[in-house]
Design goal:
The chain is mostly helical. 72% of the residues lie in helices and 0% in strands. α2 runs parallel beside α4, α3 runs antiparallel to α4 and α7 packs across α8. The radius of gyration is 21 Å and the shape is flat.
Length: 203
């Protein structure tokens, strides 16, 4: 239970880290400054929440932090996703960070009490491993590889770059045919799909 909550908390944090600027720039037409500030403001909301979450937990309890934080995070993100105004969407990111801020610290504090079914040191290590796996996986789950990006748009990104992700364009280095060939190669399904199971890891 603790691991699942921590996994989800850091998964969405990782998604914010890698994709907030892309979302603001390409879906709500935010300017370069605001798009770049999206994650910084999310982090500011998270920092503000962590400054006060201990005091709230002492008064209302850890469960209150988790439940209320999850509701605030879910509502604020939902409101951000339906916005067409980039400023309001960014303010939603601030509230999202604030709501998310106390969840992971509470999970670690519970793991450190020895009530998680294993010694505190082992519980904290297991929780950290699970949580940071979510941080790594989250960004990769958002785009579902290239399924959401059409080939003409992919060619445009390679030629012109993408400001929201600070990717430079290669239009001055690659010809149109080379760009097309690169995109065709990137979209070619991998067959057979590599297997990376326990046997391969231990080989």
């Amino acid at each position: 239970g603790l691991g699942a909550v921590a996994f989800c908390a850091l998964m969405v944090e990782g998604a914010m880290l890698d994709w907030s600027a892309v979302y603001l720039r390409e879906h709500v037409s935010a300017g370069p400054f605001l798009a770049g500030a999206g994650f910084a403001l999310f982090s500011a909301g998270m920092a503000a929440g962590r400054l006060i979450c201990d005091r709230i937990a002492e008064v209302r309890g850890r469960l209150f932090i988790v439940r209320t934080g999850a509701v605030v995070a879910a509502v604020s993100m939902a409101l951000s996703l339906i916005q067409t105004n980039p400023v309001l969407a960014t303010l939603g990111f601030v509230a999202f960070g604030f709501g998310l801020s106390g969840i992971l610290p509470v999970m670690f504090s519970i793991a450190g009490t020895g009530k998680a079914g294993m010694p505190p040191g082992a519980a904290i290590a297991a929780l950290a491993t699970t949580a940071y796996t979510g941080l790594l996986i989250g960004p990769a789950l958002i785009p579902e590889n290239l399924a959401r990006l059409r080939k003409p748009e992919a060619e445009k990104v390679i030629r012109e770059g993408r400001l929201a992700t600070q990717m430079l364009g290669f239009g001055d280095k690659l010809s149109a045919d080379e760009v097309k060939a690169l995109v065709d190669y990137a979209y070619t399904p991998i067959k057979p799909m590599p297997v990376w199971g326990e046997a391969e890891i231990n080989a």
